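Reopening this one. Same input as before:
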Amino acid sequence: MDAPLPTTERPRAAVRPARRKTFWQRNEHWLLGSMSMLLFLVIWELAVRFALVNPLFTSSPSRIAIAGFDMFADGSIYPHLRVSGSEFLLGFSLAIVIGVPLGIVMGWYSRVNAVLDPFVSALYAMPRIALLPLVVIWFGIGLASKVAIVFLGAIFPILVNTITGMRTINADFVKVARSFSASDRQMFMTVALPSSVPMLLTGLRLGLGHALVGIVVGEMYGATQGLGFLIAVAGARFQTDKVMVGIILIAALGVAMTELLRAIERRFERWRPDHHG
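Same output, byte for byte:
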């Protein structure tokens, strides 16, 4: 019986199962941020407790928490939240409804951009706070003027970023679409619009910050309710704990809206050139 021929095959390496990430590895970013924030709050509280800083000018986390609890318990904060929330939603929504379509049109049609670009550039460079007296004269000191201020603050970052997104389409995508005889409508719907989404969402995030600033500035200038009005009145009375409550609520609104926009942005992440699937 013939002996078996020697084989040159090497034994296959055992496939090791992938190690599961630890809790720290899965949540490192969130844990580090939480720990740094907690450390900051502890140092702030101790600095006030040991009289290293004057609580009249800085308050403390515990005093701010107590003031916030009292304001929610007696219901005094709710009218301010309702007014500021209405101004933000109306102004920011109006900026999106007008800014996004207008930016798409200006970015897609060069002649429209040539006509409107001087006005957009001039208004974008102009500090919107300089328009406050005119806005109050035109719309009064009610809801309409605050919505207009929020709108003016938010629309230009949205508009400019949408235009930039439409005008910076990857040339390779255009060549491929043209090689398949794509019509202008097909080019717009399948190439231009999807490619502009990341810049559009960036504009929304920038416009969000300007919209929140518009709320505070508008209510400080002329209002009888709202978080900006609360901050102004409490600051004039040296009630720094109430000032910080108003600031924290506005910051919380900004963080929540930013996270929402980031979630939407992750949904379209595959359109980014540097994204690895």
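So the earlier flakiness isn't reproducible anymore. For the record, The CA atoms of residues 21 and 141 lie 56 Å apart.
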